[in-house]
Design a protein that fits this description.
Elements (H helix, E strand, L loop, with lengths): L4 E4 L3 E6 L4 H13 L8 E4 L5 E4 L2 E2 L7 E3 L10 E8 L3 E6 L4 H5 L1 E4 L8 E7 L5 E11 L2 E11 L9 H12 L5 E2 L4 E4 L10 H24 L4 E10 L9 H12 L6 E10 L3 H27 L10 H18 L2 H4 L12 H5 L3 H12 L10 E4 L2 H19 L4 E5 L5 E2 L5 E2 L3 E9 L5 E6 L10 E3 L8 E7 L8 E9 L4 E4 L9 E4 L2 H13 E5 L7 E3 L2 E8 L12 H7 L1 E5 L7 H12 L7 H9 L18 E6 L8 H9 L4 E5 H5 L12 E7 L7 E16 L5 H4 L8 E7 L3 E10 L3 H4 L1 E4 H4 L20
Parallel strand pairs: 25-30, 30-31, 32-34
Antiparallel strand pairs: 1-2, 1-4, 2-7, 3-6, 3-12, 4-5, 7-10, 8-11, 9-10, 11-12, 11-14, 13-17, 14-17, 15-16, 18-21, 19-20, 21-22, 22-24, 23-28, 24-25, 26-27, 28-29, 32-38, 33-36, 34-35, 35-36, 35-37
InterPro entries: DUF2357, PDDEXK_7
Protein name: DUF2357 domain-containing protein
Organism: Thiopseudomonas denitrificans
């Protein structure tokens, strides 16, 4: 494959090479197509114009240029590129002078040997860094130090650089201002979108780097021609020390005093002279002094932080550059004229000197931008951002928070956003865990907390990981108020943001363009690990703690793209086992899939009932037990139902229910599933069969409870006449309950409806013993959506 770029200047030939990037280009093109974009510009910048420039082997014709817009993007995230500078003349040394020590260490200089010219070669793995990748090179030719810089724009393949990333930045800046900025990354981006006030050293440094040349040029002009003005110099002298021309009134006073023999008197003499001790020069002295102190403080702290052997992120070239920036300022402060200038105490009014005079106006404007660098960023100062993977993770965390507030009816009651402490490299760091979680409540009593990267360790009190510490990206914990069980119920869902995509082509499409975005397999495996590793502990005061698995679902979030009418490829797995993934991107239609799932789990209208909690336990994913065991929520679950009519049935069948000797009860599967979830049938432990009331023929009553010894599903014709009161040849599916000896209620339940459907209710044995009217009998478990 030919070189991606070939740049020839008077001093060197630069080539950029990578393995086949056609797959990256195709993925990028598909992303643009899916988002309705035609093209996305990508550029190359040079510090000096190239004599010859070739892009993928084709020469770019025209005048030498220093800025080139590529016909098609060449530089992408998670791609490795080789850069090689081959020097034409005698170059004795060359090195990369990027801020990142790791990036610089990846380049090696080979001096000229025989016919082999000197060269600087290295590889750059872009990783999850997007934006402008700048590679400054410093080399020495004939004893003269020279510099050259190449900048290429690295684009993401999973989202749009100019649309999706700014949208994420806006969301993050609202909750965690300035968190996204970093001192040392491979790439840099424009920082103009931040609108937060405060003293943030990284942005001050980025602004100063952009304005430094203008600042130093202004100081040079001031140094050569400092502003001065006539100022009154007042002195008191005796008559014999007066010199020069004496004002008429002063002369008369001296004459009169001498005539009166007052030779010891002193006289006020005022003379005009040029002085540099002006408010404008005091302002310049303050600006230079504070800027130098700021730079010196930054350099000192960065050198201290960079001394730790395993955390040496900064290159020596960058630290030396900070030191060099201070030298012109110190040279300015050492000038003799500034020694005469006093301390700055402010301006009484507007100064035309600062606004208009050459040199002074430049320094004044630079200082105004440095002073308000977070509000005046029209110059697009550049600063490094954290990697897109980190940005995407925090955005997903805040997107779920936004869903809870805007769509699910919650109000935020506490937001301990960790204070955003600065580390040794002036980067803001989040304090993760439940201590810094967002906390919410809803009018129906439902509460929630949303935590970022909480740690579950072997020493956990309520939730523990017995072997290895687990740290999921996002943990949503929801507590539902007590219902029929009279205690609060806690549910946990885990989310892990993965800025990765596994794309599978549609083998049935002839053009092989359509593809489906999947999350990588290892991300799904990680969801299984999280759910299996976390164990909730109960009854912590006892030695034998009761354990349970608190995670109701674990899902990966990834930047996949789907059309509005598409179907989530993980929907079936989410329903069946509670493991899967949701695509999540700013403004994408598939964003609603996650919202719909959360709404199905915890509701959104503020009308909580205890049946909402029961609904979570009825789901397929929550009903998977260990092999050979059963999983139940209510150990005394009881179903009430009226006995059918005697039409076409043996009389002995109903007499057995009257005498308490009945051994079987059957009902159509459709009747049960039409009102309750199918999983619940195996949990039923008792049948409360209603018989005709002796005192009221219009209703029925329940006075006996029949233990369920077993239940099986089969065709109706397999149920004998002895079991059902009559035989049948139908293939319709029926549930057949095997009954034990009945229990007699201390107090019967009256006014049970005759009809089958209205008399069906799921309750518990404990609740049955507390009521006497069927209408007042509390129910557990929600009805199904297809209930008539």
């Amino acid at each position: 494959m030919p070189e991606l770029l070939q740049i020839i200047t008077e001093d060197f030939e630069l080539t950029v090479w990578s393995r086949d990037i056609s797959a990256r280009q195709q993925t990028h093109d598909n992303t643009l197509k899916n988002h309705g974009q035609q093209s996305q510009a990508a550029g190359v910048r040079l510090s000096s114009a190239a004599l010859t420039l070739r892009v993928q082997g084709e020469e770019v014709e025209g005048e030498p240029v220093s800025v080139l817009e590529l016909p098609r993007p060449l530089f992408f995230e998670n791609t490795e590129y080789q850069f090689e500078w081959i020097f034409h003349e005698d170059v004795t040394s060359a090195e990369l002078t990027h801020r990142s020590r790791q990036l610089n260490d990846g380049f090696r200089f080979a001096p000229a040997r025989g016919s082999m010219p000197a060269r600087l070669t290295g590889n750059v793995q872009t990783g999850n860094d997007v934006g402008w990748l700048r590679l400054p090179v410093s080399y020495t030719r004939h004893g003269r130090a020279l510099q050259h810089a190449l900048a290429v724009e690295v684009l993401p393949t999973k989202m749009l650089l100019q649309r999706d990333l700014p949208a994420m930045y806006e969301v993050i800046d609202q909750s965690f201002p300035l968190w996204r900025f970093s001192l040392v990354e491979k790439t840099g981006q424009d920082a103009a979108s931040s609108r937060q006030r405060g003293n943030f050293p990284l942005l001050w440094l980025a602004q100063f780097a952009r304005l430094r040349e203008k600042f130093e040029q202004g100081l040079q002009v001031i140094r050569l021609a400092p502003h001065s003005r006539l100022q009154a110099d007042v002195r008191y002298s005796r008559a014999d020390r007066l010199k020069g021309r004496i004002p008429h009134r002063l002369g008369e006073r001296v004459r009169d005093d001498l005539a009166s023999q007052r030779t010891d008197r002193r006289y006020r003499v005022e003379k005009k002279r040029l002085s540099v001790d002006t408010p404008e020069n005091r302002f310049i002295k303050m600006v230079v002094s504070k800027s130098r102190q700021q730079l010196a403080g930054l350099e000192q702290r960065l050198r201290l932080g960079n001394q730790v052997p395993d955390r040496q992120r900064l290159s020596d070239a960058f630290l030396q550059e900070l030191n060099n920036w201070q030298k012109p300022m110190q040279k300015m402060l050492d000038r003799s004229f500034l020694q005469e200038v006093g301390d700055y105490t402010g301006m009484n009014g507007e100064s035309l000197v600062l606004q208009q005079k050459t040199g002074y106006s430049s320094v004044y404007r630079v200082w105004q931008e440095l002073k308000f660098y977070l509000d005046v960023l029209a110059g697009q100062s550049e600063v490094s951002m954290k990697s897109v993977a980190e940005i995407y993770e925090i955005w997903c965390f805040l997107r779920i928070r936004q869903m809870l507030l805007d769509d699910l009816g919650f109000e935020e009651v506490a937001a301990k956003k960790s204070g955003l402490e600065l580390n040794e490299f002036f980067e803001y760091r989040l304090q993760d865990g439940f201590a810094g979680a967002f906390r919410f409540k809803r009018s129906d009593g439902v509460t929630a907390s949303l935590a970022h990267e909480p740690r579950f360790t072997r020493k956990g009190v309520s939730i523990r990981s017995y072997l290895v510490t687990q740290k999921p990206d996002i943990v949503l914990e929801v507590c539902l108020p007590g219902g029929t069980r009279d205690k609060e119920r806690r549910f946990i869902w885990l989310f892990d943001a993965k800025y990765r995509i596994k794309t599978e082509r549609n083998q049935y499409e002839e053009d092989d363009i359509d593809s489906t975005d999947f999350v990588p397999d290892d991300a799904i495996n990680q969801m299984h690990r999280y759910r299996d590793a976390l164990i909730a502990l109960h009854d912590s005061s006892t030695d034998n703690q009761r354990k349970s698995r608190p995670v109701f679902g674990a899902f990966a979030l990834y930047p996949g793209h789907f059309a509005q009418d598409d179907y989530n490829p993980y929907a079936d797995a989410i329903k069946e086992i509670g493991i899967g993934a949701f695509p999540l991107l700013p403004g994408a239609s598939s964003d609603g899939w996650l919202l719909d799932y959360l709404r199905s789990q915890i509701g959104d209208t503020g009308n909580y009932t205890h049946e909402m909690a029961d609904a979570l336990f009825v789901q397929d994913a929550a009903r998977i037990p260990v092999h050979g065991m059963k999983q139940v929520l209510y150990p005394d679950l009881c179903m009430t139902i009226s006995l059918g009519g005697a039409r076409e049935r043996d009389r002995d069948y109903f007499e057995r229910f009257e005498q308490g000797t009945a051994g079987w009860y059957h009902m159509p599967q459709a009747t049960f599933v039409g009102k309750f979830e199918q999983h619940v049938v195996e949990e039923i432990r008792y049948l409360a069969l209603a018989r005709t009331s002796p005192s009221d023929s219009n209703s029925k009553q329940i006075d006996r409870i029949w233990p369920v010894l077993g239940v099986r599903l089969g065709p109706r014709h397999a149920i004998t006449a002895a079991m059902a009161g009559k035989a049948s040849t139908s293939d319709t599916a029926y549930y057949l309950f095997k009954l034990g000896r009945p229990l007699t209620l201390h107090q019967p339940i009256y006014r049970v409806p005759h009809a089958i459907r209205p008399s069906m209710k799921l309750t518990t044995l404990k609740l049955l013993e507390q009521q006497s009217l069927f209408s007042q009998l509390p129910a557990v478990y929600p009805h199904t959506l297809n209930q008539p």
